[in-house]
Design goal:
Layout (H helix, E strand, L loop, with lengths): L2 H14 L7 E13 L4 E17 L2 E12 L21 E2 L3 E13 L3 E8 L28 H4 L3 E9 L5 E7 L30 E4 L13 E10 L2 E11 L4 E7 L2 E7 L2 E13 L2 E16 L7 E15 L5 E12 L11 E13 L4 E10 L5 E12 L2 E11 L14 E9 L1
Parallel strand pairs: 9-13
Antiparallel strand pairs: 1-2, 1-22, 2-3, 3-5, 4-5, 5-6, 6-7, 7-8, 8-10, 10-11, 11-14, 12-13, 14-15, 15-16, 16-17, 17-18, 18-19, 19-20, 20-21, 21-22
C-alpha cells in the first residue's frame, strides 16, 4: 500500500480516533449468473457486495464505500491487479475469483456559495446515454464491455471537486485529478476482449507478436488531469460549457515491424477536450444535445509507419425523450463522430453515425419493469440489443432476467462481440 492509498487509511483512522463509530451503515448485494449462448457454457457467476458508511465529520460528511466482488466462473476476471491502475487506486486484492477494494471515500462540505468533495469519487458530465462524449472524467471497466450499469463500471478516482455558486445563478465546477488510473480492459481470451482492427493491430501471418503491457502514467503532479465546467439556466435551457485536459483512458496501440517480429506498444496520450450540453423540457418531451471537440486523438491508420495517426475529432449527440404515456419512457439519440484528417487508409470511417432507442415500461403499479435498449451503427450495420425484465419482489429486493445480443461483422465495434451473446438471471437487494 502506498501513496494516496496509505493516506486514505491514515485519514480514516484519524477521523475515527477518539470517537465512536456512530454513523449510518447501509449496503447492497447483487448477484448475476450469465450463460453464453454461443459458447454453451457459463460466462459469469458473480456476487457483488457494496457496504457504505457515512457520518458527520469536521463540519461536513464522510462517506466510505467498500466493495467485494466474487465471480466463481473466471472468464471475465484478471488474475492480478492490472497495471492500468495507478499507485493511488489499485484494489487491495485481485485474483481470478474476484476483487476487494475501497471503492469510494470522500468528504463533503457545503458553505454559503461553495461546495467541496475531496477524495475518491465519480463525476459525471454530459447528457448522452449508452455512449460517452463528455462523460470521460472517470475511466471505465470494460470487463463486460458496456453491458454493466455505468455507476458500477465507472472507476472512481482520487480528486478535488469544487463548485462555486455565482450571484447570477450560474455554477463553476473545477476538478483536479492526480489519480492516473485508466480504463480496465477485459483480459485476453475473455468474451469481451477487444479484437477489432479499430483497436488492435492485426498480426500478419507467420509474424511473431511482441506485446508490451499497458501501464498507467506515473503518479505525479504533472500527470494529473484538470477540468472546469460552467453551468447556467437560461430561458428554460440547462446549459453547460466544459473543458478537460486529460490523458485519454484508452491505450494508444502502436506497432513496429522488426524483421519477422511485430512489436506492439501501449501508451497514453494527452488531449484537450472542449464541449458543452443543453437540455429543455417541452411538455411531455425533453430535448438534449451534447457537443465535444477533442484534440490529438489517435486513429488506426494502415498508411502510418506506427499504425496510427493523430487527428482532432468532433463528436455530437442529439436526444429526445418522451414521457406522455403513463408508466412509459421512450428515448432516441443520434450520435455523430468526425475525424478531422484526410487519409484514405484510416480503419475507421472519417464520419461515423449511430442511433440508440430506449423503451422502458412499468406494469402492475410499477411492480414489473421491462427495458429494451438498441444501439445501431448506420455505417457498418452492427449493433447491440439489451432486454431486461425486473420484478420488484419486496420494497428493497428486485429479481430480473435479461438477454444481451450483438450483431455485425467481427471487425466492427459491436460485431467483434457477436459470439458473446448471453442470457442472465440476477437479483439486487438493498439493506
Amino acid at each position: 500500500m502506498c501513496g494516496l492509498r496509505k493516506f486514505s487509511v491514515s485519514l480514516l483512522l484519524s477521523a475515527m480516533a477518539g470517537s465512536s463509530l456512530a454513523g449510518d451503515f447501509n449496503g447492497e448485494l447483487k448477484s448475476q449468473s450469465a450463460y453464453g449462448l454461443d459458447s454453451n457454457n457459463l460466462q459469469q457467476q458473480e456476487w457483488l457486495l457494496d457496504l457504505e458508511y457515512t457520518r458527520a465529520l469536521w463540519g461536513g460528511d464522510l462517506t466510505v464505500i467498500g466493495r467485494a466482488r466474487i465471480d466463481t466462473h473466471d472468464q471475465l476476471n484478471h488474475s492480478s491487479i492490472p497495471a492500468t491502475y495507478s499507485a493511488a487506486r489499485g484494489p487491495v486484492v485481485v485474483d481470478d475469483v474476484g476483487t476487494l477494494e475501497l471503492r469510494e471515500m470522500y468528504w463533503d462540505y457545503s458553505g454559503d456559495s461553495i461546495y467541496w468533495r475531496v477524495g475518491k469519487q465519480q463525476v459525471v458530465w454530459g447528457e448522452a446515454d449508452g455512449l460517452k462524449l463528455l462523460d470521460v472524467i472517470n475511466p471505465q471497466s470494460f470487463r463486460e464491455f458496456i453491458l454493466d450499469d455505468f455507476d458500477d463500471s465507472r472507476i472512481p478516482l482520487w480528486m478535488l471537486n469544487v463548485e462555486y455558486s455565482l450571484d447570477n445563478g450560474g455554477v463553476i465546477q473545477s476538478l483536479w485529478i492526480p489519480d492516473t488510473t485508466t480504463h480496465h480492459l477485459a483480459p485476453a481470451g475473455s468474451p469481451f476482449a477487444f479484437t477489432s482492427p479499430l483497436f488492435v493491430p492485426q498480426r500478419p501471418e507467420g509474424v511473431e507478436l511482441i506485446l508490451e503491457e499497458a501501464k498507467a502514467p506515473s503518479l505525479s503532479l504533472k500527470n494529473g488531469d484538470s477540468g472546469i465546467r460552467y453551468l447556467q439556466f437560461v430561458g428554460g435551457w440547462d446549459i453547460s460549457v466544459n473543458y478537460l485536459y486529460h490523458y485519454i483512458d484508452a491505450p494508444l496501440v502502436r506497432s513496429n515491424s522488426v524483421g519477422s517480429k511485430l512489436r506492439v506498444t501501449q501508451e497514453y496520450e494527452r488531449s484537450h477536450l472542449f464541449g458543452g450540453t443543453l437540455s429543455n423540457a417541452f411538455g411531455d418531451w425533453t430535448l438534449r444535445a451534447e457537443l465535444a471537440y477533442e484534440t490529438d486523438r489517435y486513429h488506426r491508420d494502415l498508411k502510418a509507419s506506427t499504425g496510427v495517426s493523430r487527428a482532432d475529432q468532433w463528436s455530437s449527440v442529439v436526444g429526445i425523450d418522451f414521457q406522455g404515456f403513463t408508466d412509459q419512457f421512450i428515448s432516441m439519440q443520434w450520435f455523430q463522430a468526425s475525424i478531422r484528417k484526410n487519409s484514405e487508409m484510416l480503419v475507421a470511417n472519417r464520419r461515423e453515425e449511430q442511433l440508440t432507442f430506449l423503451w422502458e415500461s412499468k406494469f402492475f403499479n410499477e411492480v414489473l419493469t421491462f427495458k429494451y435498449l438498441h444501439l445501431h451503427s448506420l455505417d457498418h450495420d452492427d449493433g447491440m440489443l439489451q432486454t431486461k425484465l425486473t420484478y420488484n419482489l419486496e420494497s428493497s429486493l428486485d429479481v430480473y432476467a435479461r438477454a444481451d445480443f450483438f450483431y455485425g461483422d467481427s471487425d466492427r465495434l459491436f460485431g467483434q462481440f457477436e459470439s458473446a451473446d448471453r442470457v442472465a438471471l440476477g437479483f439486487e437487494w438493498g439493506f
